[in-house]
Design a protein that fits this description.
This protein has five helices and 16 strands. With 272 residues, it is an alpha+beta fold. This is Glyoxalase.
Length: 272
């Protein structure tokens, strides 16, 4: 299963930043996104003309603390393991260090952060037939990963994020799991796919997760009340039928309990 097989998926994220050129350079040079549009206050980046990241400058915004509700990471899903291997070699050549790497059984993932501390995951999925199950839930784990074996999977040099790259999921810091579950499960219609040590994972239509929430550092965090750096909006893309059902449950402008808004956009259809 691909995340795009789901009737709803993550389309894009909007980040508030202080140093727009520096953060944009990271997503272009390190992550390999292309610049789609730009002006003095906003730069949009993505793949094949599809916007995935919008960076908005706000020099007056307060710097978000890891103990506040907000972004844990944006996860970019690569089409193949060979792409992940090429990306890993690219990081080494660029002198960019990793902050972590894990084998989750459903996926293999690399972790780093942009210049303003916004978490980034780059990952590849295993085929759905290989996803382990336990008591009817997807049994994700956090195991060591063989980085040398991943690097050996590369078949060519990294030339930027390849066609087919998408935002596979967004992982959020929240103040409490129960109200987060009520919103994401009952309002956005995201079933819980697995529970994991102070974190819940939610996915549409059987995908392992499109949204994750955790309280690892943010337990008790209050809703956002003033402009902050970091995640400002998540864009969802869906079929007309899925969007209509979502609007019926959540309204046209759903907002989570910590003030994170979701923008609803129709999926683009492939040309005939």
């Amino acid at each position: 299963m691909a995340t795009s097989d789901a009737s709803l998926q993550i389309g894009d994220v909007t980040l508030i930043v202080h140093d727009l050129p520096a953060v944009a350079q990271f997503y272009e040079k390190i992550i390999g996104l292309e610049r789609i549009s730009a002006d003095a206050s906003e730069i949009a980046l993505g793949v094949e003309g599809q916007v995935m990241v919008r960076l908005r400058r706000d020099a007056q915004a307060a710097r978000t603390s890891p103990r506040e509700a907000g972004l844990f990471h944006t996860a970019f899903l690569l089409p193949e393991r060979s792409d992940l291997g090429a990306f890993l070699s690219h990081l080494s050549k660029m002198g960019q260090s990793l902050e972590g790497a894990s084998d989750h059984k459903v996926s293999e993932a690399l972790y780093l952060s942009d210049p303003e501390g916004n978490g980034v995951e780059i990952y590849r999925d295993r085929p759905r037939a290989e996803w382990p199950l336990k008591n009817g839930e997807i049994a994700m784990t956090t195991d060591p990963i063989d980085l040398q074996d991943v690097a050996r999977a590369a078949q060519a040099e990294w030339r930027g994020a390849p066609a087919g790259t998408v935002i596979g999921h967004v992982h959020l810091r929240v103040g409490a799991l129960d109200p987060a579950e009520l919103f994401y499960r009952d309002i956005l219609g995201l079933p819980v796919t697995t529970r994991y040590r102070w974190a819940n994972f939610h996915g549409w239509d059987g995908y392992h997760h499109h949204i994750a929430t955790n309280i690892w550092h943010s337990k008790g965090a209050a809703p956002k009340t003033s402009p902050r750096t970091g995640l400002a909006e998540v864009g969802l893309r869906g079929t007309p039928e899925a969007l209509e059902a979502l609007v019926a449950r959540a309204g046209a402008n759903p907002v989570d309990p910590w003030g994170l808004p979701f923008a609803l956009r129709e999926k683009e259809t492939a040309p005939a």
